[in-house]
């Protein structure tokens, strides 16, 4: 099996891993193509893969699931699973393939994963999570982190949450990424579970107070840099999911605002032009344009011409033989700003 080189294909050197600002793992959304765009917009934002189950990695096409471009670093692999031996094996794979962190999903509420003891149902089995985490830590030098909810139906007290944190941290986990709402496993769809249970940011703040030595990252419903600044007064980092996907230009403000460094690109046009050679390489590999272009639709969110940009791509990218010219023509539908257009703080 080939191992990814850590050298980047772009002139940029990867930024050191920091969890101050990250983009959440999202199935079908944080694909390698979206991540490539995100990295053009920010050098420091920590990126996460979509969740991949240990079963898929071990019994499926391992290389395909772990495929990424070194330009995406710093990059964390998210695993779904609960068998300690399998998790250890996959953590080792993460290291071999060049990832910077391996993260365990204890937040996904879908029925499919519950049946396999994956995701949020594991909040009810802290010992099992601790066993898996210990095995992963033993197997790899990479940081092992856990992304979880503040509870699940039936186990939603503050004491339950503390028991979870204490049990899993005793196994060696130092970083907890906390989606600040419970998951309701009986009766709500995964989508509803991202909106209906109320957000309780104060519980995440309390965790940081109760366990100051642990790194606590807050997630759920965060949309603006002002909100991020407020959360960063109480926690060690912020993780944004849907807002970062639907409005990726936000990421262009991350390096200046949270890392004191210049933005890697000055305009949305520049970002997309920087992405074109990568899209061309992927097309040559046989990747369909739609697989990539769907992740670009948010880039001109809220801009004059943004709707025409999206419509042109939506109407043309799926046509047989569609190539880079579709993106170039779509780009021509939005006027290029005369002054730099860095995202506002
Ligand atoms: C389309 C979609 C797919 C998601 N897939 C995952 C996943 O694979 N692993 C995970 O831990 N969370 C997943 N999530 C949850 C997000 O990581 C995040 O916790 C949630 O969306 C709340 O953050 P937000 O309000 O900033 O979006 C997904 C969310 C969305 C919208």
TrEMBL record:
Binding residues for FMN: 25-27, 78, 147, 179, 219-221, 241-242
Key words of the record: Flavoprotein, FMN, NADP, Nucleotide-binding, Oxidoreductase, RNA-binding, tRNA processing, tRNA-binding
Domain DUS-like FMN-binding: 23-329
UniProt enzyme class: oxidoreductase
InterPro entries associated with the record: Aldolase_TIM (IPR013785), DUS-like_FMN-bd (IPR035587), DUS_fam (IPR001269), DusA (IPR004653), tRNA_hU_synthase_CS (IPR018517)
Cofactor entry: FMN
Pfam families: Dus (PF01207)
Gene Ontology molecular functions: flavin adenine dinucleotide binding; FMN binding; tRNA binding; tRNA-dihydrouridine20 synthase activity; tRNA-dihydrouridine20a synthase activity
Site (Interacts with tRNA): 105, 191, 194, 307, 310
Enzyme Commission designation: 1.3.1.91
Catalytic activity: 5,6-dihydrouridine(20) in tRNA + NADP(+) = uridine(20) in tRNA + NADPH + H(+); 5,6-dihydrouridine(20a) in tRNA + NAD(+) = uridine(20a) in tRNA + NADH + H(+); 5,6-dihydrouridine(20a) in tRNA + NADP(+) = uridine(20a) in tRNA + NADPH + H(+); 5,6-dihydrouridine(20) in tRNA + NAD(+) = uridine(20) in tRNA + NADH + H(+)
Active-site residues annotated for this sequence: 108
Family: Belongs to the dus family. Belongs to the Dus family. DusA subfamily.
Function summary: Catalyzes the synthesis of 5,6-dihydrouridine (D), a modified base found in the D-loop of most tRNAs, via the reduction of the C5-C6 double bond in target uridines. Specifically modifies U20 and U20a in tRNAs.
PANTHER family: FMN-LINKED OXIDOREDUCTASES SUPERFAMILY PROTEIN (PTHR42907:SF1)
Protein name per Swiss-Prot or TrEMBL: tRNA-dihydrouridine(20/20a) synthase
Gene designation per UniProt: dusA
């Amino acid at each position: 099996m080939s191992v990814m080189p850590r050298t980047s294909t772009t002139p940029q050197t990867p930024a050191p891993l920091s969890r101050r600002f990250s983009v959440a793992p999202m199935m079908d959304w944080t694909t390698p193509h979206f991540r490539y765009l995100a990295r053009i917009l920010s050098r420091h934002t920590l990126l996460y893969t979509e969740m991949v189950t240990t079963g898929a990695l071990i019994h499926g096409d391992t290389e395909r699931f772990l495929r990424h471009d070194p330009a995406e670093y710093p990059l964390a692999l998210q695993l779904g699973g609960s068998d300690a031996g399998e998790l250890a094996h996959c953590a080792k794979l993460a290291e071999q393939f060049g990832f910077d962190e391996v993260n365990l999903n204890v937040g996904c509420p879908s029925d499919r994963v519950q049946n396999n003891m994956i995701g949020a149902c594991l909040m009810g089995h802290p010992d099992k999570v601790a066993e898996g985490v210990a095995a992963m830590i033993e197997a790899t030098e990479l940081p092992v982190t856990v992304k979880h909810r503040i509870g699940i139906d039936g186990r939603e007290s503050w004491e339950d949450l503390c028991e979870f944190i204490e049990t899993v941290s005793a196994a060696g986990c130092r970083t907890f990424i906390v989606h600040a709402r419970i998951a309701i496993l009986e009766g709500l769809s995964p989508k509803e579970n991202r909106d209906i249970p109320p957000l309780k940011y104060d519980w995440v703040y309390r965790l940081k107070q109760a366990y100051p030595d642990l790194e606590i990252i807050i997630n759920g419903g965060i949309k603006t840099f002002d909100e991020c600044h407020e959360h960063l007064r109480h926690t060690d980092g912020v993780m944004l999911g849907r807002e970062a996907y639907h409005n990726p230009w936000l990421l262009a403000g991350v390096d200046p605002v949270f890392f004191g460094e210049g933005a890697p690109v000055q305009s949305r046009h520049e970002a997309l032009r920087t992405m074109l050679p990568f899209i061309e390489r992927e097309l040559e590999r046989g990747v369909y344009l739609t697989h990539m272009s769907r992740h670009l639709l948010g880039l001109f969110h809220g801009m004059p011409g943004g709707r025409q940009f999206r419509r042109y791509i939506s109407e043309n990218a799926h046509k047989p033989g569609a190539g880079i010219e579709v993106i170039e023509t779509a780009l021509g539908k939005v006027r290029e700003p005369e002054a730099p257009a860095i995202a506002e703080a």
